[in-house]
Structures are given as C-alpha cells and as structure tokens.
Design a protein that fits this description.
221 residues; mainly alpha; Alpha-lytic protease prodomain-like; elongated
C-alpha cells in the first residue's frame, strides 16, 4: 500500500511540475510576443500585427488564471474554477471584447482611407515563430494532459490552438500584403483577428459560468 501511494504521489508531483512549467512558458512567451508585436505593429503601421500583440497581452491574463489553477489543483486536486479564476476569465473576456471593437473600428477607418502599412515583414516573422511555438505548446499540453487524464490541461491546449489560428490569420495577411501591396489585406487580417478575439471573449465568459470546458469546444479530442 505504501509503495502504491508513493507512486501515485510521484505521478501527481510530475504532473503538477510540468503543468506549472507549461503555464509559465505560456505567460512569458505571450508577454514577449505581445511587446515585440505591438512595437513593430506601431512602427510599421500594420494594424493586424498591432492587434495581434494586444491579443497576446490579453492572453497573459488568461495564462495567469491557468497558472493559479495549477497551483490550486496541487493543493486540493479540484479542476473546478475558483473565484480568482472566474474573475480572470471575466477580465479576459471583457478585454477581448474591447480589443474586438478597437480593431474593427481601426480596420474600417483604414479601409475607408485606403491606408497601408510600410511593411509586414515582421508580421511574417512573428507569425511564423508563433505558429511553431504554439504547436509545441499544444503538443506538450495534450501529451501531459492525456498522460495524467487532466481535462483542465487538455482544455488549455485547445485554447492554445485557438491562439495558433490567430497566428495563421496574421501570417496570411502579412504574406498577402508583401506579395501584392494591397493595404486592404492588412485591414482584413485585423478584422479576422477581431472576429477570433470576439469568439475568445465569448468563450471566456462561458467558461467563467461553467458552460464550456475549453476554447475549441472539443475537449478530450
């Protein structure tokens, strides 16, 4: 019996160690990605990249909630959201809605004025790095989540997948502009990011109310 308990405790500690590491990597990566994207988005006049950067900062709030959840699970084992996590989800959802409104308005104005960015080179670079990074995070979150039967970590992996879709939209818009020089592609990319941000905001509120188990709606797949 003692041996079985030690093995169980050892597995739990291994899970919480890796879940904590993955949560912290997600937080710090989004901080760096957000800062770099906002800087180059502003410098180059690309609203898609700027909006992508702000989205990354919003993801940090969600990431802090996940990190808190991992630490709480380590104490009591429950995967249900506590008051702090629900508040973090509501703040995240509100921030996504504000971002959606701001991006939509800015993109519409740019389309009306015919504005175009100086270059979207950094959008291509950042989106490429982001897609690779998100893919690795998804892989390891799913691997650890399935290995230890954690629906919370599997759900977080699906949220990370939603972030990767944002990177794909940014990459498509940035490459499209570099190839054609059509300023409307950057604005359309921003509208695509706005649409995904709205979806993430809605899902954050649903999670806070206990109505959804994950961002992609396919937990455990």
């Amino acid at each position: 019996m003692t041996t079985i308990l030690l093995r169980t405790d050892g597995r739990r500690e291994t899970f919480y160690k890796w879940a904590n590491i993955l949560a912290l990597i997600t937080i710090f990566y989004n901080l760096i990605e957000g800062a770099v994207s906002v800087f180059f988005g502003y410098e180059d006049g690309t609203v898609a990249l700027f909006g992508f950067g702000v989205d990354s900062f919003v993801e940090v709030i969600s990431g802090v909630g996940i990190w808190h959840m991992v630490r709480r699970m380590r104490r009591n084992g429950s995967e249900d959201h506590d008051a702090f996590e629900k508040t973090a989800l509501k703040v995240t959802g509100t921030a996504f809605y504000i971002l959606t409104a701001g991006l939509t308005a800015t993109a519409a104005i740019n389309l009306y004025k015919g504005s175009k960015p100086e270059t979207t080179f950094w959008g291509i670079v950042i989106a490429g790095v982001s897609i690779l990074s998100m893919w690795l995070l998804i892989h390891y979150k799913l691997k650890i989540g399935r290995q230890f039967s954690s629906q919370a970590l599997i759900a977080d992996a699906n949220c990370t997948r939603a972030c990767m879709y944002l990177s794909v939209v940014l990459l498509a818009a940035s490459i499209g502009y570099e190839l054609t020089g059509l300023g409307m592609l950057d604005s359309l990319g921003a509208l695509g990011i706005a649409a995904l941000s709205f979806k993430e905001g809605r899902e954050a509120f649903e999670k806070a109310e206990g109505k959804a188990c994950c961002c992609a709606g396919n937990c455990g797949k």
